Amino acid sequence: MVTSPSHPDSSSTHTIAQTNPSYSPQSGSAIIFRSGEETLIRPVSRVLSSLHRSDLLILSSQTPPLPSLPLSPYPARPDTPVRAHFVTDQEPIDSGWSHGYMPGTYDALSHLLFTPPPTAGSSGGPIVDEESGAVIGVMLGTRVDNRVEGLRGSGVPSEVIFEMFSLPGISK
């Protein structure tokens, strides 16, 4: 686990500098990703855009090209079968993408609900339409609306991602 260099006294976590002595921080954040069998750490050079209520962030970093997923510009239908990749601190019994579905939402343009609920640490992961393979949302966490429906996953629809970019002809 990695923590911010500004909190080095945290007993259960380590700073990036502690886990990789050759790392020279250029900013307060880093991107950690796997390239084949190698784990790479790259400093974040800039925050290009963010939406704080949606937990979305676009970062700039010197990384090799990474594969991307298609992004759906349309709201998902209720009962859409979805897949999501949950983070776990133990090796999962069935690794890979978890199957689930979207039972529907109150407002398809502001939030989406899905099952099963994500594990802790999965926030920011994609919610993918099983049929098309396109990202239809981003996981935020879990919530309980009532006792009948119980605990469900909560996320933002993919349309919100488009709010992070300037459209041609529109100045901020």
Automatic annotation (TrEMBL):
Residues 1-15 have a biased composition (Low complexity). Residues 16-29 have a biased composition (Polar residues). Residues 1-29 are annotated as: Disordered. This is Trypsin-like serine protease. It comes from Rickenella mellea.
